[in-house]
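Figure S4 source data
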Amino acid sequence: MDYWKNGGLTALAFNDASLLTCISNDFGYERVFAEPIAGFAQEGDLLVAISGSGRSASILNGVEAARKATCRVITLSGFSGSNPLRVMGDLNFHVSSDSYGVVEITHLSLLHGVL
């Protein structure tokens, strides 16, 4: 919410418990991000998609929904260089490590510095 409060940017984080429960119960957890993105996204919005493995179905489906809404996409992934998320963004950050800790702390550092 700091992006909205301090930066004047509309920002949503899809981690509200009632939203997650409702969407996962009604559409399946693999659609937990795709459905709200389809409902809220507007042309030109930016989606930041993060998956350690780059293979999470919920994240991949969210990116596909963002693309259908003509959003821009930044991806952060790790592990295999051939993971599907790695090539789905307009800007892609990949951490070549098989350690979740290394991947996640690198993503955190990138996000802190970039966004």
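Figure S5 source data
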Amino acid sequence: MTPKATPKRVTEQVYFRLRKDKTVEADFSGGRITGLGGLPLLGEQEMTTRLIEGASLAVIDRRVGRIKYTMSHLFRQRVLLICAGYEDGIDSNYHRHDPGMLLAMGLSLNGGEALASQSTISVLETQRMNGANCYRLAKYILDFYISSHKKRPKRIILDFDGSCFPAHGDQAGTSYRGYYETNMYFPLLVFDQHGWLIAAVLRPGAHAEVQITVPILKRIVHHLREVWPGVEIVLRADAGFMSPVIYNWCEANTVLYLIRLKVAGGGGGLNAVAKQYIKSAEHHFRRRFGKEKFLGKGGQKRRNQFETQLRCLPREERKEELHKYRHRQVREYGAFYYEAGQGKKKWGKERRIIAVCDHTDTGSKKMFLVTNIEHEVPQRLYEDLYCQRGNAELFIRDLKALKATKLSCSNFSANQCRLLMHALAYLALHQLRQLLPSSVDRQTIKSMQEKFIRVAASIRESVRRVSIRWTSHWQWERLLIHLARRLRLVPLAT
């Protein structure tokens, strides 16, 4: 008896009225089509770097009995979905059979395999990843940073910064912070000068900026010098980290630092000592440009009117006038030794202070930096070293572009786990970004997702091969092929 053929799936037809000359129809019989056609690139990169695999091996899995999904599977699934822009656990349900995800995970498209469900991911975050496992994962991220260097670096600059992660409910550890006017967590993030994320530690929202900074710095410096003895390490941070506790530790452990000082009120003694640089900037401004335009009563109003008039000029004239206006500035640098603080907060010794004094049409502006870097001119310390700290803000923006602020679990350890999963996703995309040619402008993590991960593709699996057919009109085709070449997926001769 001849077996009956498997009936084809019948889908309801949809008709559009967009064309008058032809019928426009649609149904769900297009086959395996994914919006994540570039995700296999990350899967291929993972086979080389073993970033996520190593993270899964760093934690302890105490499950016994029959295990359907290994820790490696769960880590790869969670991190790859975050890389693709799906940060919620429930997204696992929506993409369990997505061909782009299955292929990036190395799973069969025809074998009936599926990704883990939301409930399994939730158990991973809330039960498997306790505080001890989060610590092991955080330690692994530092170890991976070290192992990713082929040779010993001459200098490592550590950018420490805190950031506002708004609360999504009444999560443990969140609290109201007046400066940001919201309930929040306040994680401590550490990057190197090239954008590598070295540490991501979740802190309660009420923590001070400098809280747990020294223990984290101590752990990082110890590991770095254990592998690279004698490597020069520089701590760079904003005024939130001005603390003699940090200065003392750095000086006792031969760590260089350059930290901005927050001057309360009128600046007191610092302004008195730096008065000569402030007066010099004012004198040179008046000799070069004349009297200030916007000083005194009503100065802000006159400035607003002046800038409004400038922006009403024709394009070329506007550009020229704005250029002249913004260059009406004189900057003076100075260096001196000073002991700040009062009572118990007194430094106990004099330290080198870098003064950056600007004079413009609105008056004088001052900035002070404290450092233990000797024999370096103030201008180079500020322009070549401290100003580059702005890149750390861009790196934090990239991390937040992965929706790392979505720490909505009620458990503090579960939210620490989520932050570390997003850190792994950031590192995976950062490594892919480093493969782009140097002639291409710096890509944000968001643009990496849009250009190289979320690519429409048709995927088919036959007996002998799996075929990915990317859309024919992808404007980033050249760069995508370049990434494939760097991952050795395309013969170099082609």
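The chain is about 40% helix and 15% strand. The longest strand covers residues 351-360.
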